[in-house]
């Protein structure tokens, strides 16, 4: 069974378009409010329906990993989770959000379809097991401090807890103190573990630990990262997008402007078709 077929079987709500396309996890970095989240979801769904791309709406209900204590962390856990629930219900798409501690797994699982383990926490055994035990799909982001091969242990932890529904997402590797680099050899290596593999095209362009205390980025290279990932054979893409990145409350420096999403995805489909 192909990785994309496996992913489609993971989520009953995900529409199998038989298009042969990659799947997409996309949305704002954080849930900033109901109106803007609904508007982003509506626009992305119109695009992905048109292009026959299986879609999962992404939004963090809380941002626990911030450089500065004064940075935006969220609008309230339950409020944000209810917005995610509404998007899933009204648009008929699966949703994904991050969890940060074991106690959050069951809470978030009541509202979303996919639980995401942040890169910094991918080795946290109790967190992985708690996510697995909810029965939800578990998307584990590869730590930027780990090799692709090391992620087989994260997969094993989830599966040994009785959950076969695992996705791995690459988001680059630490390259010096304030930059990341993507090693595309890691995508097929992680696919060899028998799970779908996603490329995070936005966080892999972060420039963390800036002296200002606000993470920087290179959003002009998002399409470059995405094109290479599709050419290598990534099963899915993760793209954070916003209608006004400059004023986004979290990670605006490396998000794709929402107006550029359709053009970007259209080009990526051509690459996907060329390699099939």
TrEMBL record:
<protein>
    <recommendedName>
        <fullName>3-deoxy-8-phosphooctulonate synthase</fullName>
        <ecNumber>2.5.1.55</ecNumber>
    </recommendedName>
</protein>
<keyword id="KW-0963">Cytoplasm</keyword>
<comment type="pathway">
    <text>Carbohydrate biosynthesis; 3-deoxy-D-manno-octulosonate biosynthesis; 3-deoxy-D-manno-octulosonate from D-ribulose 5-phosphate: step 2/3.</text>
</comment>
<comment type="similarity">
    <text>Belongs to the KdsA family.</text>
</comment>
<dbReference type="InterPro" id="IPR006269">
    <property type="entry name" value="KDO8P_synthase"/>
</dbReference>
<comment type="pathway">
    <text>Bacterial outer membrane biogenesis; lipopolysaccharide biosynthesis.</text>
</comment>
<dbReference type="InterPro" id="IPR006218">
    <property type="entry name" value="DAHP1/KDSA"/>
</dbReference>
<dbReference type="InterPro" id="IPR013785">
    <property type="entry name" value="Aldolase_TIM"/>
</dbReference>
<dbReference type="Pfam" id="PF00793">
    <property type="entry name" value="DAHP_synth_1"/>
</dbReference>
<feature type="domain" description="DAHP synthetase I/KDSA">
    <location>
        <begin position="21"/>
        <end position="269"/>
    </location>
</feature>
<keyword id="KW-0808">Transferase</keyword>
């Amino acid at each position: 069974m192909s990785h994309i077929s496996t992913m489609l079987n993971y989520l009953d709500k995900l529409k199998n378009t038989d298009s042969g396309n990659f799947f997409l996890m996309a949305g704002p970095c954080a849930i900033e409010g109901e109106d803007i989240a609904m508007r982003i979801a509506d626009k992305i769904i119109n695009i992905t329906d048109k292009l026959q791309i299986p879609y999962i709406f992404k939004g963090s209900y809380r941002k626990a990993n911030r450089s500065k204590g004064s940075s935006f962390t969220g609008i309230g856990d339950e409020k944000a989770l209810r917005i995610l629930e509404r998007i899933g219900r009204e648009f008929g798409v699966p949703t994904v959000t991050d969890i940060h501690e074991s106690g959050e797994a069951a809470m978030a699982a009541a509202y979303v379809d996919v639980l995401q383990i942040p890169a910094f926490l991918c080795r946290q055994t109790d967190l992985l097991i708690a996510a697995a035990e909810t029965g939800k799909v578990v998307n584990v982001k590869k730590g930027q401090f780990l090799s692709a091969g090391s992620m087989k242990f994260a997969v094993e932890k989830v599966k040994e807890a009785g959950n076969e529904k695992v996705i791995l997402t690459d988001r680059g590797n630490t390259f010096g103190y304030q930059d990341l680099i993507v090693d595309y050899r890691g995508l097929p290596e992680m696919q060899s573990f028998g799970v779908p593999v996603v490329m995070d095209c936005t966080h892999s362009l972060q420039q963390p630990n800036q002296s200002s205390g606000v993470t920087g980025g290179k959003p002009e290279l998002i399409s470059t990262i995405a094109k290479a990932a599709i050419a290598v054979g990534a099963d899915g893409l993760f793209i954070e997008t916003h209608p006004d990145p400059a004023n986004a409350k979290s990670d605006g420096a490396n998000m794709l402007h929402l107006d550029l999403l359709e053009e970007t995805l259209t080009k990526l489909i051509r690459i996907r078709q060329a390699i099939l």
